[in-house]
Write a structure and sequence with these properties.
Number of strands of chain B: 11
Oligomer: heterodimer
Largest sheet of chain A: 7 strands, mixed
Order of helices and strands of chain A: EEEEEEEEEEE
Structural class of chain A: mainly beta
Largest sheet of chain B: 7 strands, mixed
Number of helices of chain A: 0
Number of strands of chain A: 11
Radius of gyration of chain A: 13 Å
Radius of gyration of chain B: 13 Å
Amino acid sequence: QVRLQESGPGLVKPSETLSLTCTVSDDSMDNYYWSWIRQAPGKGLELIGYIYYSGRTKYNPSLEKRITISVDTAKGQFSLRLSSVTAADSAVYYCATFSPTRAFNIWGRGTMVTVSS
Amino acid sequence: EIVLTQSPDTLSLSPGERATLSCRASQSVSSNYLAWYQQKPGQAPRLLIYAASSRATDIPDRFSGSGSGTDFTLTISRLEPEDFALYYCQQYNSSPETFGGGTKVEIK
């Protein structure tokens, strides 16, 4: 079974770029789409976007001007970059597998990112 | 985008009781690409149901999903202590894939 682990800074300054990596274990990366989802404190879930192993991406229109998702299959990792962050971007960021037929079926534990000076 | 509205916001029930959670979509969810997730405090969501009615791996059969089109239901037949949590529905038929606002199932 695939396991996912998020990593990256827990604190980012306003206007800077948030960068996170998700490391994939125990499976080949060509079986799923690889996604990022976030959850602001006390709030619901928001899809950020996802990427296929080929590099094809799909971004949430509300964020797409600021996000880049990339994949490195050789390293078994995919990454998120979110630019020009504000306090509203403070959230727990989850990486997850996405299947067009089985939804978001495997999740990482999540990593809290706070945007503050 | 498809907006999902979950009701009620909070469901207060006792262990052993039946829980019925509703998810209504602003437009039809084709192919019944509707999923349900459970989230406990401090944990990641866990997939319970996909394709409206298919249980995910290792999910007990007290959890069942039903519905089609714009109206979907998650039923927990007999609540166990570990079932008191937040539940989200999510559609993955139409981009962007969207989540409902959640229903909290709490102990009465």
